[in-house]
Amino acid sequence: MSTLSSSGSSRAGIVTGGAAGVGQAIVRKLVSVGIGVAIADRDIDAARKLSAELVDAGGNVVALHTDVADAASLERMLEQTLERFGRLNYLVNNAGMLGPIKPVWECTDEEVDRVYGLNVRAVFACTRVAVRHMMERRSGAIVTIASVAGKDGPKNLSIYASSKAAVIGFTKSWAKELAPHGVRVNCVSPSLVEATGMKGEMPAWFSEDSVGRIPMGRPARADEVANVVHFLLSDEASFVTGACYDVSGGRATY
Which terminus of the chain has fewer Cβ atoms in its 10 Å neighbourhood, N or C? Predict the structure, then answer.
């Protein structure tokens, strides 16, 4: 399985959508323990701003202009990561989108394609590119951001919920496929996360309803999600693969 250690020494990885929100929190957490991080994001200005801040603080970080829906962009992402760090120990598939909040009879094919294109197809493509290097080294760990919506299927959110259910499903399949190659694969399923772009896309009534379903009575913090991601990447989770870890304040319990 993965040789990742809790010290972070000589490790490097990619965080897609790492310039803001949960992705930024994951980048900050990994850099704080000495991990080299490629911030792969379409918003290159935001990625460069974050990178400059972290480099000034002593972090080993590079900003990469990446469109996870474009195959050539993903190949460049891997090449540039290897040029900078010489290795790829892990991948965090964080880039995603909420999509429309509406009943099924109002959903269009274009909306389904748009959400699935980013939340499902792009994760397949990104993982295919990154895992080749991990398999060659027989070491690595992958974490994808799913959602509690993928477990309980909220009303009016069927496109997003089903895309995140797909994440949970392919995580379990990939874990079985990659275990013989020394690569662990897990996902996390957060509830609503405060102060993120996705939360900002929700109408107030939907956000309030989502918080009302959380037994702990509040949204998750981005750093709480990042802490679980870091655990799953580390050797402390060396016998954990094919798992979906909830960060939901008790909303989901399976």
Answer: C
Residue 144 phi/psi, 5-degree rounding, is -115, 140
Cβ distance 226 to 22 under 8 Å? yes
HEC assignment per residue over the chain:
CCCCCCCCCCCEEEEECCCCHHHHHHHHHHHHCCCEEEEEECCHHHHHHHHHHHHHCCCCEEEEECCCCCHHHHHHHHHHHHHHHCCCCEEEECCCCCCCCCCHHHCCHHHHHHHHHHHHHHHHHHHHHHHHHHHHHCCEEEEEECCCHHHHCCCCCHHHHHHHHHHHHHHHHHHHHHHHHCEEEEEEEECCECCCHHHHHCCHHHHHHHHHCCCCCCCECHHHHHHHHHHHHCHHHCCCCCCEEEECCCCCCC
Active centre residues (catalytic):
160
**∠ CA 188-185-117, rounded to 5°:** 70
Band of the pLDDT at 4, cuts 50, 70, 90? Answer: very low
- For the stretch 6-62, pLDDT in tens is 444 589 999 999 999 999 999 999 999 999 999 999 999 999 999 999 999 999 999
Q: Kindly state the tokens that stand for 220.
A: 């998750």
For residue 13 the two structure tokens come to 């990885």
For residues 224 and 190, give the distance between their C-alpha atoms in angstroms, rounded to a whole number.
9
- Minimal CA–CA distance to 190: which of 234, 156, 160, 170? 160
